[in-house]
Amino acid sequence: MASGFDRHASGYEAAIAKAIAFAGQPHERYVEAKVRRLLHLARRHLGEGPLDALDVGCGLGLTDRQLRSHVGSLAGVDVSEAMVAHARETNPDVEYRVSDGSSLPYDDASFDVAFAICVLHHVEEREHVALLREMGRVSRSGGLVVAFEHNPLNPLTRGVVRGLPFDEGVRLVSRRALVASFRSAGLDVTDADFLLFTPWRRLDPLERWLGWLPLGAQFVVAARA
Question: How far is the CA of 174 from the CAs of 61, 124, 152, 154, 183, in angstroms?
Fold first, then answer.
């Protein structure tokens, strides 16, 4: 997996832009929507104080570019050395390390929030619980473990994934399966909502009202460590 993402690092953003061009919105809009949802979850469950956050599967650091000014400290890990090198250049104030996720290179209870955005569908299903347990281990007691994933029930999402060279052959994860993996990892699930129902930001206030509806392009599962 690492060598595959090393190979796609230079063309990653262009491939995504091409795959979602039909929606008429830049990729940054969707990244921003997930950053806002992550911050909303953190404020609701952890309060307004500065947070220490870990981005598991950080890739090029696209999420971190928008998140870093909203948290106390930010770290990221990824299997791809090329992706991590790019992330370091983009976000010099974020600490990055190369890691395959089987053992995150941090001590117990190091973070308030550990999150993974569209990562688990690249991980063997039998390894989901172990990765989520690791994310829980490095999170402080009462902290949050959060995962965003593509919604396999949305046909447009399936089409986008089929058009991405680095998603070739992946098996998308259902919300029900991911919730079950969180619980098997010993995490207390607090939220399991669909999101990204439209590409237009002006309709964002409707997003949380529609969270139960399995038509969003993606979904998010959050749990207490």
Answer: 25, 14, 6, 11, 14
The Cα 196–Cα 86 span in angstroms is 27
Token pair 């117990």: residue: 108
In CATH, what number is assigned to the domain containing residue 141?
Answer: 3.40.50.150
Q: Domain span at residue 50? A: 2-224
Q: Torsion over CA of 90, 123, 51 and 201, rounded to 10 degrees?
A: 70
Single pTM value for the model: 0.91
Cβ atoms of residues 83 and 62 within 8 Å: no
Amino acid symbol at 137: R
Tell me the helix, strand and coil percentages in the chain, rounded to 5: 45, 20, 30
Give CA–CA dist 56/137, Å, rounded.
13
Q: pLDDT digit string (tens) for 56-77?
A: 999 999 999 999 999 999 999 9
